[in-house]
Amino acid sequence: MVQGQSPLEGLGVRQFEDIYYERRVLLTGHTGFKGSWLASWLAQMGAQVTGLALPPYGSPNHWDLLGAPATDLRGDIRNLSAVQTAFEQAQPEIVFHLAAQALVRRSYRHPLESWSTNVMGTANVLELCRRTPSVRAVVVITTDKVYVNNEWPWGYRENDRLGGHDPYSASKAACELVADSYRKSFWHADNAPLMATARAGNVIGGGDWSEDRLIPDLVRAVQAGTPLEIRSPQATRPWQHVLECLSGYLLLGQRLLEGRRVFAEAWNFGPVPEDNRTVAEVLTALQRFWPELAWNVSAAPQPHEANLLYLDCAKSRSSLQWAPVWSLEQGIEMTADWYREHHATGDASTVKQLEQYLESARTAGCGWIA
Fold first, then answer.
1. pTM of the entire predicted model
2. pLDDT higher than threshold 50 for residue 3
3. Which of 33, 155, 186, 305 is the most buried (most CB within 10 A)?
């Protein structure tokens, strides 16, 4: 690479007006599924990324396969001193806060973990954002499950009522309130940091080995040669490839770094309406790539989970000029390809798939890439 050149410049790729090149970024949750993909993308754009997270979940895991695209700090966001150490070392200009307890069923087993991580952990991160003069922008990642779910057949908009049945959903809705409180209490001056929250749907992609998620459970079942046991085949979710929501987060971060206060609010990032599919439809699509896939429906009693969930992303499309790049079928194909290649070689095809995504985005005429 030529000195002073961003890593993807040699590919003729200019992303987000090159705003992340040599930018100091603090990324919480960098060892997780979304966080590790975002760390890799930021590193490819030449950002100076520092990550703060717990050790990655299990082995194999995506973070260890990536070859350290970020300075790797380990710590619990519930520990204020660990968060302070990370901020002191990184001196970030922008913070992407992804660290969370992110599993619905786990939140039933360990509710206090969800509340303490998602609420007080977020408060700790925002408090250090407040204390650190270098911080100019903050993007807090929550979830599509922050809305009171009335099982409506239309999408939830950013101004719909927040709530949550299970501890995970409710704690992430509370995380939104923490963020809004910090914005209104401390960051209302013209020169204050700008903060936004981002709410995305169910993400798929290679490198996810989390418990109680459809794709990781599928991968484990196929490798074990056993049928996949599913809980709610008719549950509908806004499925999308992980790179889709990450492009939204990065575009939102760009606008905040540009000092555009109108973007310092909540945003939905989800698929086009026709990619809201049932679990059974997603499994049927996956069978094209894993013919050996088999599943049956569990008869065991299950804790409550929403059956129908849509996001209305008109605001992101009209105001941010953001739109998905890949169809759900393409996202499923890329996910299957990633796991098949890893199973065959032990390697992660993350950077290769990122380059494929960027080429698709440029071909589609996305405004954030040139």
1. 0.92
2. no
3. 33
